[in-house]
């Protein structure tokens, strides 16, 4: 009888623990595309990107990032209209810096955004990430969705970006979230 009581108590504790988690902690989004895992930074970082994406060529990076200083890794579709960029920025960052950085990025991007979507913090694989999410018009008139996320990594800023032309957004937005939730540092 004691054994049954213990099993019931353990079961209730597990249910209570699961109910106490926030939706952002428990629901890993599932996108519409098959992903492949890639290892970066001497295999210290893994991220899943769409299976058909390839690393952007240096020539294409020069066109997409004309001001220079492109992200180290940019995975892109064949047309270059949907991208996943990963970079470790040589700026010091600790977990306590994430919330103020969210606010700083929010004030910076919100003024330029054609549509502000969201910003905040979330937990992914036991790491706190800050994020900003918005649409912005490009100089050629296209509107681009941007999902920028960042966290501390070895005292530096790990930054990822998912962007897509808005015409493809309904199809790609769930995958943007799935890519973030796949990251292991």
UniProtKB/TrEMBL annotation:
It comes from the Bacteria. Keywords: Signal. Residues 1-18 form the signal peptide. PROSITE patterns: PROKAR_LIPOPROTEIN. This is Lipoprotein. The lineage of its organism: Bacteria, Bacillati, Bacillota, Bacilli, Bacillales.
């Amino acid at each position: 009888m004691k054994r049954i009581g213990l099993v019931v108590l353990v079961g209730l504790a597990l249910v209570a623990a699961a109910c106490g988690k926030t939706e952002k902690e428990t629901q890993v989004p599932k996108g519409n595309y098959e992903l492949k895992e890639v290892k970066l930074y001497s295999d210290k970082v893994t991220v899943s990107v769409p299976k058909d994406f390839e690393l952007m060529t240096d020539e294409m990076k020069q066109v997409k990032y004309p001001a220079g200083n492109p992200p180290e890794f940019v995975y892109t579709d064949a047309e270059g209209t949907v991208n996943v960029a990963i970079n470790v920025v040589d700026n010091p960052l600790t977990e306590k810096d994430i919330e103020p950085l969210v606010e700083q990025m929010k004030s910076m991007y919100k003024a330029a955004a054609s549509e502000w979507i969201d910003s905040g913090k979330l937990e992914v694989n036991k790491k706190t990430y800050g994020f900003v999410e918005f649409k912005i018009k490009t100089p050629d008139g296209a509107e681009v969705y941007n999902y920028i996320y960042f966290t501390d990594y070895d005292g530096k800023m790990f930054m990822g970006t998912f962007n897509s032309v808005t015409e493809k957004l309904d199809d790609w937005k769930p995958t943007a979230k799935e890519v973030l939730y796949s990251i292991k540092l």
